[in-house]
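Field reference: sequence -> structure
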Amino acid sequence: MAKYKAMLILGSTGAGKTPLGNQLETQDLWYNNYFHFDFGQNLRDSIKDDCTVLTPEEKEKVKRVLENNELLEDSDFPIAEKLLKNFIEKREITPEMNNVIVLNGLPRHLGQATALNNIVDIKFVLFLNCPGEVAYERIKYNCGGDRTDRTDDSLEEVKKKVQILYDQTFPLIEYYRSQNVNIVEVAVDIDTLPLFIIQDLGVLDNMF
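Structure field:
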């Protein structure tokens, strides 16, 4: 089965992954069509009453994960797979060379990364390096414009998410580096906007 070309955005909560993914959908950077898969938003949408992608048992699992600011375990990958495949079907994405899925929030740890290898071919990893104190300030002032309806943005919750990133997500950088995937790190400050990042990336050719 043909795999879908993808890029992965890594970064702590508040680093601007979602605004960047949304902005990429409006660009033709490197002559590609971008489709932003915001895993966190898809998880939150999946537990709504009118969503039929997951079983009732899977919805309860997702509710517990969201309430406790946890990550899905390796054994829960079928949930992530269902949501990603539903996204691909709804957006009518085909595995053509100029179509790129922008992964945001998935994978979050090595187990998910290896499982995803059967679905996507990650060509490029963009790491938004945003220290915890900067992330909290960005969230407090909604610098990315995407936190209006979020209820998981207390200082303690932000600290917990940043610690999870360090503990489980950072090893992904080394994993993809060992797979010879292009990795670019961008420093994120309080006033860093998606367009600034894209302008910087615009000088990079042949990322894919």
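Note: The mean pLDDT is 87.
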